[in-house]
Amino acid sequence: MRPPSNIAKLLGDTYDHSLCREVLLLCDGKPHVYAQSWITVEANELGLSNMGSKPLGERLFQESDWQRGELEVCHIQCSQSRKQLAELFCAPAVPFFARRSIFTNQNAKVLVCEIFNNGIE
Fold first, then answer.
1. Are 85 and 34 in contact (CB under 8 A)?
2. What is the CATH number of the domain that holds 65?
C-alpha cells in the first residue's frame, strides 16, 4: 500500500510501499487506544509481518536492534477528528492526545501513532 503523502514524508521518499496496521486496544471491553503503524517493506522482511494479535511494541522494545526516534506529542483540536474519535471510543468529544515516533533498524522503519481515549471514567 502506498502511504499517504504526510506519512511517506516521515518515512522517507524512498518508501513507496508500506503495510498499515491498525488496532484498537481494549481494557475491560472498552476502547482505550487507537494505534496505527506504518511498516516499511524492509521492516516487514525483518519479521514484523503477519503478527496477528501480537503486540508490535513487544517486538520493537524486546529486540535491541530497533531504535526509537524522537517522541512527538499533540493535542487533537480538529472538531471533525474529535467527533470521529468520540464515535470510535464511545466517549464524549473531549480533546484527545496522540503521540508518534519512528523506530529504525538499519534501513527499516516503523512509524507508530497512538491516540488515547481521554473520556475514560
1. yes
2. 3.40.1410.10
